[in-house]
Structure prediction request, 186 residues.
Amino acid sequence: MRSSIVTFIAALTLVASAWAEPTTQPSAPKPDAKTLAVYDHIKALAGQWEGKSTKGWTEVLDIDLIAGGSCVMERSHFAHGEERNSGMATMYHLDGASLLLTHYCMAKNQPRLKATEISDDGKQVTFTFLDGTGMTSRDVGHMDKVRINFEDANHFNSQWTFYANGQEKWMEAIKYTRVEPKTAAK
Prediction:
């Protein structure tokens, strides 16, 4: 009986010491200055925007910082009709050295894109397809490339490429004008 108690106490001590001692994790690679500059431009978009597409439609974008500022959530409204569930969302976040976006699309899939080209001044970024969910293969129609140009504090534009069956299907450009900035909660 005494040896069982000693074994039990030794096991508890091992478990407790495992919880008490921090484990060393390898540090993730850090983003470079250009990637951080682009992410800062994206975070500065917080507010409400009106977009006008070369395809003739208009939309409203609501852009918010969420998750302690570690993610930027962009929600579009009215771009593809005013019916219920017509909006889309795009999330931007850093992952180690990479800047990623996930687009929750009307095509009912969720392509994930990675920033692959950044201008030296950080005012232009191109995201290209990395992977996605809701797709059995890359040939299922999805948003495949996005280019964003930050003009000034009240204007930016984007170009979106749709990809299906091995080729780009179309690209549209959208010009955005700030309607309302986000203000800090009081």
